[in-house]
Amino acid sequence: MYTLDTNAIIYYLKSDQAAVSVLEPMFAQDIALYVSAITELELFSFPALTDGDISAISQLLTSVVIIPVDSRLARFAGYLRREYRIKTADSAIAATALLTHTTLVTRNTQDFQRIPTLSLMPI
Fold first, then answer.
1. Would you state the torsion angle of the CA atoms of residues 105, 106, 107, 110, taken in this order, to the nearest 10 degrees?
2. pLDDT tens-digit profile of 44-87?
């Protein structure tokens, strides 16, 4: 089981070879994949999105479980942000991975490595 960081999805949608080689088998094997609602927000917030981009993102998101930011996750993300000095969005994504007991798939290993209990899969 895995949680996908925003950048993993972006690189996958851009057909980045490293991202595709990691994520394509996950999608093909129907492995449980989670995404923070923060990732959903980030994906749809880019100003230059085309209708095709929106369609591709929407289609991909039908293949994952979107984890909402509830009070429990928000408090845990706040703790992670305070304790490890990471960005708010990253803290919510890390909290999602930790609370779902999954490995975080990301290209941003540098910031997330600060959290010793977080399992990472670099792409």
1. -120
2. 999 999 999 999 999 999 999 999 999 999 999 999 999 999 99
Strand order in the sheet with 120-122: 65-67, 33-36, 2-4, 103-106, 120-122
Task: Give the Cα separation of 41 and 26 in Å (integer).
Answer: 22
Tens of pLDDT, residues 44-56: 999 999 999 999 9
Half-sphere exposure at residue 73, Cβ-oriented, CA atoms within 13 angstroms = 22
Helix-strand-coil split of the chain, %, nearest 5: 55, 15, 30
State whether residue 66 is helix, strand or coil: strand
Domains of the chain: 2-122 (3.40.50.1010)
The residue type found at 11 is Y
Q: What is the pTM of this model?
A: 0.94
